[in-house]
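Researcher: We're teaching a course module on how sequence relates to structure. For the next exercise, students receive a sequence and then see the predicted structure as tokens, so they can try to spot secondary structure elements on their own. Here is the exercise chain.
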Amino acid sequence: TTAPIDSVHRARALGLSLAELREQQPQIFAMLKTEFRATIVGFETLPGQVNGNGAGRGYIYQYIPPRPPQIHQAVYQCESLEVVYFSEQLDFLRILLQVKNTPVEALAAASIRQMYQLRQADRQWLVNVGRQLSVLLKDDYDRLRYILSQIHISP
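Model: And here is the predicted structure for the students to work with:
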């Protein structure tokens, strides 16, 4: 979310590009704060740590880490190969489906679409995802159907 730094000012769109805003209204950037929320669905140990797989990579765990990230720890987008490696297992879907205050079904579908694309349209992986979702949502057919309808995979 992007919002004013105080409750007095109200943010509103001015219809300008970012470049135009920087040129015409540079003070705006000092008056706004941007926050994002993230849900941790897994982590990787460093190579050579306890339980490492010894193959030059750390070991992937698909659950919340024992310690939360530090407040000033940077956040980076995963590389494509990291996402492919992480998505070998599907346990993270359980955590993803429990996120609060988020359109969870849309988030799950978007994540699956992105991973499917990064996995170069691995159809068997997608079938396994469908099976895993059907187990996790066995008592909620409407949510399952909605997620599957949002995956829009072209042949």
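Model: If you want an answer key for the exercise: The chain has a mean pLDDT of 88. The CA atoms of residues 75 and 123 lie 31 Å apart.
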